[in-house]
Amino acid sequence: MSLGQDDMVQDEGLQAVVLCDVFNQRFSPLTLDIPRCLMPLCNAPLIEWTLESLALAGVQEVFFLAAWHTSAIREYLETHHPRLLRPVGRSQANTSALTRASLIAVPEARSIGDAMRELDAHQVIKGDFLLVHGDAVGCMDLASIVQAHRQRRRADRNAIMTICTMPCAEHSRSRPLGDQSVFTTVPATSQLVHYTSVPGIPPKRLVKLPLELFEDASQSISGMGAELDVRNDLVDCGVDVCSLDVPPLFTENFDYQSLRRDFVHGILTSDLLESKIYIHVAPPAGATSTSSGGPWSTNVCGMLGSPAFGGGYMMRASDPVSYDAASRDILSGWTHPFSPRNGLPGGAIYKSLAGLRYIGEEVAMAKSAHLGNFSLLGAGATVEENAQIRHSILGRDVIIGAESAVSNSYIWDGVTIGRNCSINGCIISRGVRILDGVSLSAGTLVGEGCVIGPCVALGRNARISRHAPRDEDDWDDDDDGSVHAGEDNSAELGTSAQGYLWPPLEPRNGDDSDDEDEDPHECAANAQLYQILNDTEVQLTDDSLSSIDADSDAFVDSDTESDISSDDSIPSFMSARGSMSLTLPDGAESQTLGEKMESEQRLSEFRAEAEASLARAMEESHAPDNAAIELKTLRMASNVPTSEVKKVAIPFILGRCNVEQAKETADFLDHWGPLIREVAQDDQVEALAVMQSYCALNPSQMRLFVPLLKKVYNDELVADEAMLAWWKHPSSRRVVLDVPSQTQWSGSVSPEQIVLELRKRAEPVVRHIIESLMSDDDDDDSDDEEEEEDE
Q: Is the Cytoplasm keyword given for this protein (predicted)?
């Protein structure tokens, strides 16, 4: 096809392909009864999130590729989207261009590669298209990314794909543990030159890169200088912009099964193909960061520099852990304009309460019941006397019995939980009945229609289903949904139970860890990393404060050449991850003196303007949200790092606090605390370090630090996990702010010593957090002991 013909095809409208199946068992047994794309996320089916994203991108036609549950998907589309026109919401006009959809059944497909070959056989793709995983969620500006891809492709016909990614802070809940990606790119062009997918177990410290990459870099790839970026701080959004050439490439090579590990890796390592793949790095919506890319440049065929290009949040709810992270991100407002308060996909709107709590219509909640932060109650839910809901989402018509506690869990429509139950870190599917006195531990998945109890306690990572467990070779994650006979072990689930308790997610005796046929990402050991964890899974114990050291394994220099550990335990929350830039000498500095001076001037101007903006906001009593928007606008215009916003806003706020006037300071922080939460959300550990350093550098504010920590903890301005991660991080032991040259220090006391002293004073606060997070586990243990004594 000629270039002119390709341009003509684009005028027919943008197309999208949605992969409804992912061909793994990470959500089993839930997906035996419901297609993954119809699973609820904040009570809105994942397919609704997908359709909203595609509509905002200007997609006109969408193809759903489905191997299993095709009748359920077709029925849903016919019922809810007979014409695929987005319903008009209260806060948004119906501007969707999405008017056509087709469901392509691929029953013989057993991999994404098979599904793509079926797509190619249908010959329905007419030009560039969006390839979207059915579990991708967010509000990323896909339209501008498509435009940049098309412009790049006009100049270079070998540019076949743009992978959408999102930067993620070191301690973010959005960072995957069990399936990490390492992208090696040419930063001047955003061209991807190497890709590695790394399972969490066994843990790896080193990634091998081909020597050819550095030889090419030394010859100045694309004529833009000898530099490579090696990054594992990017979240794969599950969205790719593809050219018309992509489906035929799957047909030509039947070895391409997975999208990343086979197709992308195969394209990048092929000696025959000249195809090129690029990545787009976008900032999360609502964060104070901006895109590392920019408007497309015909001079370098790459992305250089605009803060307005391709921004937004998007990630995959590809396993229970990422499902949990995406849910919390939605409640935190990262998917704006879609939020419980403004309206979620599908039209549901919730009443908003302080502490990121949301209540649907006709909810019945006893006065003695407690609704904790990060919680959402679906329409018609009932919470009885003295029940506690914390960090959880309840679907429609859910009933929580008296004296029961639900934490860090997701309870789907129509579930009934009896009295005196403990549900922690679970996903419970539709129509399940949990009878009185049942305790379910972290990582538990309960399939549709099961009955559990009464008076039983199940351990971690339990899986319960109406379907009997079968050998892994006999079925896939999205099976046909029929109930199969098997050994009845319902007694372990209670005298009135209905269902099967599946084998635990543990390596079986005799398993060969070196089995070449086993996917290392889906093996039993690594699969544990996909399950929802307790809050205490940062691997801290009651006496952990004395064992958290900067010299621990988690903080070994990434450049070390020591042997990879053979420890197969789950890596800690602080396992070494980050980004690394490899620069080969080319005779010139990567940044000229003039560019450095210009950068310093921008930074100086930003600080001055940001402080003036904050002063005006406080004098005129602006809303914190408005102040945050103005700071974001200033940061985008100045093109400075996100850390600079924290280093300006947090000291400015704390500078207005008077430790001698406790009530006035508390009232002041009540009003301006949300601004701290806003500027801290992309890296809360860094925000805590800034608070500590500010108090250390200002002797009059030293006494403010511990009450401040208690305040940000009680008001949930930062997450519990972030507080513990800050204690463990080296930044809690050093000054992260510039030390004023005019500051006088008494005697021999240095700022670093004061930082260490403040960290010591914070120990009771951190210990309290650990004890409160472990209390649920202690309760579960005591219940187990009592049960054993009764036996």
A: yes
